[in-house]
């Protein structure tokens, strides 16, 4: 009998769609198939409207929760068709949901995308709500993917750093020493500020290949001002989100400048902020000859990759393609793995990463 199939669903802070993967983990990892489902524009707008406080939030959240559940179910069913799988072939779905609020300073986080609806519309057991148990144990509830990175990517021969560049950026330190702790935390903005700025000024969803940022010049005063934010100097564990890094924050930073710069130079400086905050975090661990592997949507931004490599002389910088997993699917696979951990009664968090008081079995199970 073949090993169980798990499906992982991920919709990140970039709001660029739902990533769905079908995988097996035994006897070794196998990516069976993948599918990306674009979010309907009305859902994208509803999500964005809830990312900041506003009117009638409870009703709007309730409606969004149901509609996102249907969208996650549609992504799953389309994945099954793509992979020629039947629902009976799948043991469980692991769904991250769409983060609406992440407030570790208040000890709560909120992801939308009703798992009851996912189960009902797919006929497959769903595991969801992974973050709040870690928070109940005193953790940040994020990042959760370092436990998966440790399971799949750790090497006994060399130090590795996995950097996920989604809306936010987070890293995982995987020491070659098997006795050393895995570390992981959010480093700050990934694509979120770049996407917000180009959307505001060029009506584009993202800066393809970093082409716009590559045309400008870094504004030292703006970069220094942004890097003075206390978050960048806090010791981990730490996590962040759109609550901190958003278009209004950029505009506040601009009011502190001596003169108004042009929009292209601002985009260049926002890219430098992402690259610099990642590089400074990696350097702070004094790793010897570490290999750095990027994943997430930001791994396609060639200008950003060039800047990260330039800021990390002596490190080799590549993508997780070199580790046999395409960078677009790493997070979705992580939530399939977390669902397996839950159903195997195994912990899904790493206390050294999140700050929780101990290892915990994460997630709630929604049976067929």
Q: How many domains in all?
A: 2
Please report the distance between the alpha carbons of the first and last residues. 22 Å
CATH topology of the largest domain: Nucleotidyltransferase, domain 5
Helical stretch tally: 12
Structural class: alpha/beta
Average pLDDT over all residues: 95
Based on DSSP secondary structure assignment, what is the total number of beta strands?
12
Strand-residue proportion: 15-25%
CATH architecture verdict of the largest domain: 2-Layer Sandwich
Under the CATH scheme, which class of the largest domain? Alpha Beta
Q: Residue share in helices? A: 25-40%
Report the C-alpha radius of gyration, rounded: 20 Å
Query: Could you state the CATH homologous superfamily of the largest domain?
Result: ATPase, nucleotide binding domain
Shape: globular
Tell me what the structure shows:
This protein has 368 residues and is α/β, with parallel strands linked by helices. The longest helix is centred in the N-terminal third of the chain and has 27 residues, at 57-83. The chain is built from 12 helices and 12 strands. The protein is globular and about 65 Å long. The mean pLDDT is 95. The chain starts with a strand and ends with a strand. The strands form 2 sheets. Strands 1, 2, 3, 4, 5, 6 and 12 form a 7-stranded mixed sheet that branches. A 5-stranded mixed sheet has the order 9-8-7-10-11, sandwiched between helices. The chain has 2 domains: 5-141 and 331-366, Nucleotidyltransferase, domain 5; 145-323, 2-Layer Sandwich (Nucleotidyltransferase, domain 5). It has helices spanning 41-50, 57-83, 115-122, 131-136, 145-153, 192-202, 220-227, 247-254, 263-283, 302-311, 330-343, 351-354, and strands spanning 5-11, 18-24, 30-37, 90-103, 108-112, 126-128, 160-165, 168-174, 183-189, 291-295, 316-319, 364-366. α1 (41-50) packs across α2 (57-83), α2 runs parallel beside α3 and α6 packs antiparallel against α9 (263-283). Helix content is 37%, strand content 21%.
